[in-house]
């Protein structure tokens, strides 16, 4: 579902991604770890067709980017650092707008289901600009899964969430994965990543410097492995 070969991204004279290779098969849940500035967000922006690669090949669901970005976007759900919500619309109205864009069937029923999943059903008619950062993040997650996408990209989705909301997000991630969807999530939380994902990839100096499947290493070993890989 995600194929990346020799991906290079340069900003000015500064290379961020340096020939990165990555593959996610259908139904895989991969957590992408790495220090600040390693290129995690840059990679997800390219996969979401929000940024163009400098060189290399990128495919999402078999659709090459950026040539067939429109087809790729239809099967993608994205949670980024920006909420991508309309502050002067209610939570319900935001989801209705996006649902119509994607042609979601039985839209009102699906909106109710999603709002209950992310814990915002009681606030469904409140304007989004009145929401806290954590509540906006919850709604962003709801927007991303509204059309039941085949591939979901989460860029540090737990940022700004309290403990209750983080637990809710963990449940949503597990539900998405249980439906056989492909999930790529960036994170700084090694413990959460090892609990949720079936594979952990470590991004360092613009390439995938280490890749570990669940069961290959103990969760207690991950911090030391992470330090060694990112220091190398």
Q: How would you describe what is shown here?
A:
This protein has 232 residues and is α/β, with parallel strands linked by helices. The protein has one domain: P-loop containing nucleotide triphosphate hydrolases (Rossmann fold, 3-Layer(aba) Sandwich). The chain is built from eight helices and ten strands. The chain has a six-stranded mixed sheet, with helices on both faces. The chain has a four-stranded antiparallel sheet with strand order 2-1-4-5. α3 packs across α4.
CATH superfamily: P-loop containing nucleotide triphosphate hydrolases
Architecture (CATH level 2) name: 3-Layer(aba) Sandwich
What is the count of DSSP helices, taking H or I runs of 4+ residues? 8
What is the CATH class name? Alpha Beta
Mean pLDDT: 93
Shape: globular
First-residue to last-residue Cα separation: 30 Å
Low-pLDDT residue intervals, each spanning 5 or more residues:
none
- In terms of quaternary structure, the protein is single chain
Task: Fill in the CATH topology.
Answer: Rossmann fold
Look at the helices and sheets and give the structural class: alpha/beta
Using only C-alpha atoms, the radius of gyration works out to: 18 Å
Secondary structure tally: strands:
10
Q: What's the helix-strand series?
A: EEEHEEHEHHHEHEHEEH
Q: Which sheet architecture does the biggest sheet show?
A: 6 strands, mixed
Instruction: Bin the helical content.
Output: 25-40%
Number of domains: 1
Strand proportion: 25-35%
Strand order of the largest sheet: 6-7-8-3-9-10
